[in-house]
Amino acid sequence: MTERTQCRAGFSAIEGREAKARKILTVLDEAGHPLIATHRVLDVGTGSGQIAAVLGEYAQVVSTDRVDQRIQGQTLPFVVADSALPFPDASFDLVISNHVIEHTGDPKQHLCEIRRLLSPGGLAYLATPNRRWPWEFHTRLPVLHYLPAALFNRLAMHLQRSDEPLYLLSLPGLEQLCGTAFHVASWHQRIVRQPARYWLRVPHWARCVLATLPVWITEITRGWQPTLIVLLYPR
């Protein structure tokens, strides 16, 4: 449920990005916030541009990244930007941060920028690997990410499993960073129960097993599931 770190300045993973866009649309629909043509959307860390291209079929989409590596969505507005996003306050009805926050170097600033850019009544979709999950997807190393971040990053780069620091968050850590700025509504536990509904490819046997899980199990384990997928509502 996440992509591996890319050896370049921007985020350029390609595989599964269109499915991720469809997943985002499904989450928004079920949350009662379907995209409409007048919505202003910002896709942060757009990478290959595939998510922005799909969302651009439904709304007015602007995308940003450190470098332009788009293979789709080239006709959409694009701005080169790093941590500080060059847009006025309250510019967007929806901000997409899909596996970006762990690469920013300053997760709190990333969240502050998202909050600043959201219009009244807007919301953000954020996905990031869960630090509590024992397998680290970027480096493909088990449990080492449980170490303090500075030590984990030194080891990962020494082992040539990563070319940049990673700042992984747990669900409580994300909620703490959001503080009074956002209400955090987690969706990954719903996706675990019905992965195909959210455009995730899993074996048929796994779908059958997951469908039989009681809701209370997926709820109490939501802090330990592989990927955090949340909607952020400004307070």
What does this protein structure show overall?
The chain is α/β, with parallel strands linked by helices. The protein has a single domain (17-188, 226-234), classed as Vaccinia Virus protein VP39 (Rossmann fold, 3-Layer(aba) Sandwich), CATH 3.40.50. Helices cover 30% and strands 21% of the residues. The protein has eight helices and nine strands. The strands form two sheets. It has a seven-stranded mixed sheet. A two-stranded antiparallel ribbon has the order 6-7. Strand 6 and strand 7 (141-142) form a beta hairpin. The radius of gyration is 17 Å and the shape is globular. The two termini are 28 Å apart. Mean pLDDT is 92; it is low at 1-8.
- Give the CATH topology: Rossmann fold
Number of strands: 9
Which structural class do the helices and strands define? Answer: alpha/beta
What is the level 1 CATH name? Alpha Beta
**Gyration radius, to the nearest Å?**
17 Å
Order of strands, main sheet, comes to 3-2-1-4-5-9-8
How would a crystallographer describe the biggest sheet? 7 strands, mixed
SSE succession? HEHEEEHEEEHHEHHHE
Q: How would you describe the shape?
A: globular
Kindly estimate the percentage of residues that lie in beta strands according to DSSP.
15-25%
What's the N-to-C terminus distance? 28 Å
SSE inventory with pairings:
Layout: H1 17-30, E1 40-44, H2 50-55, E2 60-65, E3 78-80, E4 92-98, H3 107-117, E5 118-129, E6 135-136, E7 141-142, H4 149-158, H5 171-178, E8 182-186, H6 188-193, H7 204-212, H8 215-220, E9 227-234
Parallel strand pairs: 1-2, 1-4, 2-3, 4-5
Antiparallel strand pairs: 5-9, 6-7, 8-9
